[in-house]
Amino acid sequence: MTRRLPPTASVATSGQCARMVAPAAERNSAAICDLLVGIAPSTGRALELASGTGQHMAAFATRMPDLHWQPSDVDDDRRASIDAYCGALTNVLPALHLDATRPGWGKTHAGQDLIVLINLLHLVSADETACLIDEAAHALAPHGRLLIYGPFMRDGVLTSAGDQRFHASLTSSDPAIGYKNDRDVLGMMVAAGLVPSAPVDMPANNLALLAKKPA
Question: Per the domain annotation, does 59 fall within a domain?
Fold first, then answer.
């Protein structure tokens, strides 16, 4: 679904060749990699939803070379950027077009041992969030792990002035989007048949929400 977003919602500039550069990805890649190394399977299939510029994908695939990674995005330019970053990595497939907020993709991409989503939920609606989590649950293999990273309300509260400003800019552009409450997202994970663990505090007041698919 096409959304009206403020200019600050997804900042990326052109780099060398087709590569795009997102400052946020430069800042948070190492911290997310460190978290993933601790929870990801040593081998298997990994899917990144809404991969964006490809900076995260290149970092993940380099740090976890025995996982076979599938990046995805809805935007043509960003898929080209992903492939430019990851073209030399033998454990990364070409980026595919996948809208994670639409029903049906979970069965098409079943058997994933790890699914990663970074900085998307505040840009989509609550209904789209629930659909995404339900489809991710269908796509995960037994014992597969889901990681959702980004800015969230904590118990319904925006905990910093920066978060308050950003949430307001999002909802003024589209009232259906904006920060999700961490407890609501954890509840969606449970409703989808997943078993969440305690949220992990991340840099820049972000959270990592983790869940596992039972056997």
Answer: yes
User: At 26, is the pLDDT very low, low, confident or very high (cuts 50, 70, 90)?
Assistant: confident
Full DSSP string of 24-44 = HHHHHHHHHHHHHHHHS-SSE
pLDDT of residue 16: 65
CA distances from 5 to 15, 90, 199 (A): 22, 35, 27
DSSP readout, 134-159?
HHHHHHEEEEEEEEEEE-EEBTTB--
Locate tokens 């995960």: which residue?
Answer: 140
Query: What is the enclosing helix (H) or strand (E) of 201?
Result: strand 200-202
Percentage of the residues of the chain whose pLDDT score is greater than 90: 89
Q: Which residues contact 72 (CB under 8 A, 6 or more apart)?
A: 47, 48, 49, 50, 51, 79, 95, 96, 97, 98, 100
pTM recorded for the entire structure: 0.93
Rounded Cα–Cα distance for residues 120 and 2 (Å) = 13
Phi-psi region of 189 (alpha: psi -120 to 50; beta: other; left: phi over 0): alpha
Residue-level pLDDT at 24 = 87
Q: What is the CATH number of the domain that holds 90?
A: 3.40.50.150
Q: Is residue 133 part of a domain?
A: yes
Confirm whether 8 is domain-assigned.
no
Look up the domain containing 110 and give its range: 13-212
CA torsion through residues 22, 156, 31, 110, sign: negative
Chain segment 173-192, per-residue pLDDT in tens: 999 999 999 999 999 999 99
